[in-house]
């Protein structure tokens, strides 16, 4: 047995703290995450031992066929759901057994979501939709309006702020949803099949927008079954039957990208 006291440079209690601060932790650290559903006597292992680190500023895609566990993974990392077992550290906070109320608060401050079907509230204007995540933020109505308009400007939607979602194209609805995801300045943005309901050109514009957010320093995770979409991100993680695949399937590696977003060619 080695004498721990003689480990080279073994720091005093004070020194420990410094070492941990120097070794920057990843933004997200998942260890052996399982999510099991029991349905009609059947056990479904939606996630079956997922471990993953994501650093601040990464642009990453989660790719895999339908039913492989992508959305389940995104919901768990995004504080919409909790794992059956395993640990998750998000931005220094262990979230795997947080209460629903704690998760809601973390989600509101740290996470932005973009969904395939936009999920805008039809009775609210574009600006009101973007203001929604700020309801509990303590901002005055004037501040909320200003921040919403800034977010809308960043997605070139400031001239549609008074429209209702039904008066917008699909691409404009998705840009509004991106503005809503950005407005609380989240640590990470999740986009689940964000171009799934858009034509190819409009989809490309939306992917360019995520790329721009990434170059501005945001952490962005795209969830997709489409290799051409995964091809736009520098890092890709393939998930199959609830597990992370060791090697990405060459067929999924997007050799001939359909989307031109600037950084992949
Ligand atoms: P993906 O997003 O990759 O298409 P999901 O994460 O939605 O896959 O689903 C993974 C697996 O878990 C699928 O077999 C799905 O049927 C199952 N599943 C997802 N949600 C539930 C649920 N609430 N109850 C039971 N099974 C579920
Ligand atoms: Mg899904």
Q: How many strand segments?
A: 10
Question: Which stretches are poorly predicted, pLDDT < 50 over at least 5 residues?
Answer: 1-15
Percent of residues in helices: 25-40%
- Report strand %: 15-25%
The unique ligands bound to this protein are: adenosine-5'-diphosphate, magnesium ion
| Cα-atom radius of gyration | 20 Å
CATH superfamily: P-loop containing nucleotide triphosphate hydrolases
* Domain module tally: 1
Task: Characterize this entry briefly.
With 265 residues, the protein is an alpha/beta fold. Helix content is 31%, strand content 23%. It has 8 helices and 10 strands.
Describe the structure.
The structure is a single chain. With 265 residues, the chain is of the alpha/beta class. It has helices at 13-22, 70-77, 100-110, 126-131, 141-154, 170-182, 200-215, 227-230; strands at 28-39, 42-54, 59-63, 85-90, 93-94, 111-114, 188-192, 219-224, 235-240, 243-244. It has a six-stranded mixed beta sheet, sandwiched between helices. It has a four-stranded antiparallel beta sheet with strand order 2-1-4-5, covered by helices on one side. A hairpin with a 2-residue loop joins strand 1 and strand 2 (42-54). The longest helix is centred in the last third of the chain and has 16 residues, at 200-215. 39% of the residues are buried. Bound molecules: adenosine-5'-diphosphate and magnesium ion (MG). Magnesium ion (MG) is lined by residues 70-71.
